[in-house]
Amino acid sequence: MSNVLIAGAGPAGLTAAYELSKLGLNPTVLEADDQVGGLSRTVNYRGYRFDIGGHRFFSKVPLINQLWEEMLREDFLVRPRLSRIYYRQKYFDYPLKAANALAGLGPIEAMLIGLSYTKARMFPQADETNFEQWVVNRFGERLYEIFFKTYTEKVWGIPCNEISADWAAQRIKNLSLREAIKNALFGSGRAADGQVITTLIDQFNYPRFGPGQMWERCKDLLASRGHETVQGVKVERLRHRHGKVECMYGTSSNGETVELGADHFISTMPLRELILALDPPPPEKVLQAANYLRYRDYLTVVLMVKREEIFPDNWIYIHAPEVKMGRIQNYKNWSPVMVPDSSRTSLGLEYFLWEKDEEWEWSQDRLIKLGIEECTRIGLIEPSEVEDGTVVRMKKAYPVYDQHYTESVDIIRNYLETFANLQTVGRNGLHRYNNQDHSMLTAVYAARNIVGEKNDVWSVNTEMEYHEEVRQSSTKGDRLTPQRVAPPETAEKVIEAAFAKLDPLAMGVALGVVASLVLFWATTVLLLKGGPVVGPTLGLLDNFFLGYSVTWSGAFWGLAQAAFGGFALGFLFAWLRNWSLTAYAFLVQRSAEAKERGDLLDKV
Amino acid sequence: MAHKNRETETLSKAVARIQAGVLAITCGLICGLGLFAMTAWLLVKGGSQVGQHLQLLGNYFIGYSVSWLGSVVGLIYGSLFGGLIGWGIGRVYNWVVTLRQGPEA
Ligand SMILES: Cc1cc2nc3c(=O)[nH]c(=O)nc-3n(C[C@H](O)[C@H](O)[C@H](O)COP(=O)(O)OP(=O)(O)OC[C@H]3O[C@@H](n4cnc5c(N)ncnc54)[C@H](O)[C@@H]3O)c2cc1C
Predict the structure, then answer these.
(1) CA nearest A301: which of A372, A380, A355?
(2) pLDDT confidence of residue A476
(3) Measured distance CA(B11)–CA(A181) in Å, rounded
(4) Does residue B31 belong to any structural domain of this protein?
């Protein structure tokens, strides 16, 4: 009997199996499809390879980077990134560059953008519950309308004011003042293991033959260790008793029923499917919560074009509302071997749909025709250049973050926690808009939980940074375990010291005391020395200290006034110094946040 | 705004103490070198009555005059005097902070 059964051979399922095999357990993976990789697969059509979208490999989690390197080695390429936005028959660099955007939009639009930005920053909307409010507060109404609204609505199929602001907040890190300063002082570009993090904006890693290569390789590695990945078996039922799952039932592609038992179960199935597959069924409330969960579906129309180069970008965001496609991928710019013949180009036109949309049901030919029409309309190709085409439909590509999903997920989560040997992980498994790295991390956590660790898979958040270090554990052989590390203590100390406030009162007193003593001493020295005219020059101080003179009474009067003047000066100095330090910190935070938001569209 | 203020609080809760020795050296260097430079500048500029006002510092710094030797004497006096002022400010400041906040942790 296999002791761990995993439903789904996407990044999460295969990573769980890989980790379990390292831990000396015996995992078996059941995959509904005839190909592994899930959403991160690479489809091969007549030698043309393409992903579902384009999959950049980038992670701040050292453990995940290490896993990727370990699996692919020299086939893990570093690729430059180039992307633009198509809007109003023009191309805009993305991430946006001021000069380029200004040239494209014209001075009047640029001025209006500036005004609406200023208004948003000065009078932000107090309520920030939906995505529209979130973006408008940060970019202004006009930039939102031009660069965010149409694309986001194409992707999600719901108005931006119905998308939860959680989603943006989770994808875009909100830097605290302290974090921003720390990044400014010590650099944000390092992972917890000290490796320099190259930003996803300029370049990214990509497997030579597309993301699917990673997962095919993972499957092969598992097979070489004797762990099976059974393809074509869709898990339909999980029988359970007394809080423990006993077996998974599935149907194979040739219609046979498969029944497999295990000690532990990991599911990467969509959360809704998992709940509906439980036998006996969960309480009504949980079923209802599962049925509330929504998913956005996705299809790619791939066109094979008889032209060596169409555009230099990896992808182009299509904001133009006159066409339905949301993005175009140019796969040979991801890796040259994605096309079988370098004189040809394959374009992936991405359509974001609901399964119930009529386009979802359209025939392949009709969709290809639509794709050719739209590419022609925006001036990319001539219809006669298209040699071939294909369509890949992908259900449940995006877990939807509507206004109710958190409540539903919480109900389901609480229910699933009553099972002793069932864990759900991955993107749809947690109903989280995770990229591969975080989907994989949840899988690593789940695998380690089976051997006694207590990791919370739900705590893995899309934009969360992991302060994890992979350390060799002396007690557990070569098993690598993640351990939280505190941010560098020295950094904390430096910030604490550098931003410590001067006490204005104390500074006032100090300057007051010293100034008064100096003036008193200066006056008395001259008085003691005597002479026909005593201290005519020092006496000029009466211009500032009214009534002061180089006399014994003047010495005391000067002492009092210098004490007062010194106090005022010291107080003001300390206050200004504190204020300017704070202002500096806010500026640093502002610019760090702006940098964080620079690639917002990539996160949509 | 209240939120921002809270954030500044968390940036650093500490109240700065002044290293009196460091402030003494800083002020000492500024005053010493300052007096040296001022004296030298007046000498280089020359004229009929060189530094008639700066000369008056001789009332306090015995031996000081607006001359090349005086500039070196001024350097020493200025350093000592500036150092004393810096040290004084630092000590008084720390003393008041300690009174208000308690001794440093
Ligand atoms: C358009 C698009 C672009 C993306 N771009 C990036 C990117 O640039 N970088 C990045 O890191 N990530 C990207 N992602 C996200 C990435 O694809 C996912 O994070 C990752 O694939 C999730 O892995 P998973 O194993 O959790 O789920 P999936 O990839 O969905 O895999 C789940 C697997 O389980 C199988 N399965 C489901 N139900 C059953 C069942 N009942 N029985 C048996 N098997 C079942 C499925 O067939 C599938 O193979 C993108 C996603 C999309 C849709």
Answers:
(1) A372
(2) 34
(3) 9
(4) yes
* Cis? peptide before A95, omega within 30° of 0: yes
Note the pLDDT tens digit of each residue in A195-254.
544 455 688 999 999 999 999 999 999 999 999 999 999 999 999 999 999 999 999 988
pLDDT, tens digit (0-9, with 9 covering 90-100), for A1-46: 459 999 999 999 999 999 999 999 999 999 999 999 999 999 999 9
Q: For tokens 């110094």, name the residue.
A: A577
In testing the pocket of ligand 1, which one of A33, A40, A253, A463 has its CB within 8 Å of the most ligand atoms?
Answer: A40
Q: Which regions of chain A carry the CATH code 3.50.50.60?
A: 3-76+206-291+404-483
Q: Tell me if A563 sits within 8 A of A486, measured CB to CB.
A: no
Question: Within an 8 Å CB–CB cutoff, is residue A569 touching chain B?
Answer: no
CB A62 within 8 A of CB A482: no
Domain A3-76+206-291+404-483 has CATH 3.50.50.60: yes
What pLDDT, on a 0 to 100 scale, did the predictor assign at position A205?
A: 94
Token pair for B35: 């007096």
Percent of chain A with pLDDT over 90: 67
The Cα A444–Cα A434 span in angstroms is 14
Sign of CA dihedral A281, A284, A288, A289: negative
Q: Give the strand pairing for A257-261 and A244-252.
A: antiparallel
Residue B53 lies in a domain: yes
Taking contacts as CB-CB distances below 8 angstroms, the residues of chain B near A516 are none
Q: Say if B59 falls within a structural domain.
A: yes
> Count of alpha carbons within 13 Å of A296, Cβ hemisphere only?
21
Residue B86 lies in a domain: yes
Stated as kind and residue range, the H or E segment containing A591 is helix A552-597
ipTM score for this prediction: 0.88
**pLDDT attached to residue B11:** 64
Instruction: Tell me: pLDDT of B25 over 80.
Output: yes
Residue A303 beta carbon below 6 angstroms from any ligand 1 atom: no
What one-character-per-residue DSSP string does A155-211 give? HHSS-GGGSBHHHHHHHS----HHHHHHHHHH-S-B-TTSPBPPPTTTEEEEETT-H
Tell me how far apart the alpha carbons of residues A267 and A236 are, in angstroms, rounded to a whole number: 12
pLDDT tens column, A368-414: 999 999 999 999 999 999 999 999 999 999 998 877 889 999 999 99
pTM: 0.75
Q: Which residues of A touch B10 (CB under 8 A)?
A: 176-178
- Tally of structural domains, chain B: 1
**What's the CA angle centered on A287, arms A282 and A290, to 5 degrees?**
125
CA A356–ligand 1 middle distance (angstroms): 21
Instruction: Return the higher-pLDDT residue of A170 and A366.
Output: A366
Asked if pLDDT for residue B7 goes beyond 80, the answer is: no
Opening angle at CA A332, ends A326 and A334, nearest 5: 75
Q: How far apart are CA A331 and CA A53, in angstroms?
A: 10
What is the CATH number assigned to the segment(s) A295-399?
3.90.660.20
What domain range is B39 assigned to? 21-101
